[in-house]
Amino acid sequence: MVSRELSAQIGALSVAFLLLLVTAYFDVGVGTGPAAIAVALLFNGIIFGGAHLYLALRGDDGMVPVEARWRYVAMLGGLLGGGALVYGGDRTIATVTLSTIGIAVMVLAVSSYLVTETIASYRDTRAE
């Protein structure tokens, strides 16, 4: 029997590949440039976080608790935002380049995700 999580993941994969087909048909996001970067980030966001976001919005626990799904979606948002900054070109804010800020955002997103998941896992295993 197909689980709800597998159905959500298949749906997210379908939406992501439909996005690629539509952007290729309209010749948007093909090659290099800002549109291609936006399409790539959106595609990866849907692939890696689409099912988690859908199931978190519905409140379905399944194999992963809803709170953990929200933490994962938040971390993925930080990674995608940092990825957008990394490909921001040679622009600077004061004397710091956008790529440096993007890398810092990505490192902060992953490290805060690991810390919060570690704390949540520890609290789940403690005897009450």
List keywords for this structure.
mainly alpha, single chain, 2 strands, two-stranded antiparallel sheet, 128 residues
What gap, in angstroms, lies between the N and C termini? 35 Å
In N-to-C order, the SSE pattern is HHHEEH
The strand count comes to: 2
Taken as a percent bin, the fraction of beta residues is under 5%
Q: How many structurally independent domains?
A: 1
The biggest sheet amounts to: 2 strands, antiparallel
Radius of gyration: 17 Å
Strand order of the largest sheet: 1-2
Shape: flat
Q: Count of helices?
A: 4
Task: State mean pLDDT (0 to 100 scale).
Answer: 89
> Structural class of the helix and strand makeup?
mainly alpha
**Spans of at least 5 consecutive residues with low confidence:** none
Helix content estimate: over 70%
Keywords: Membrane, Transmembrane, Transmembrane helix
Transmembrane segments: 36-57, 69-87, 93-116
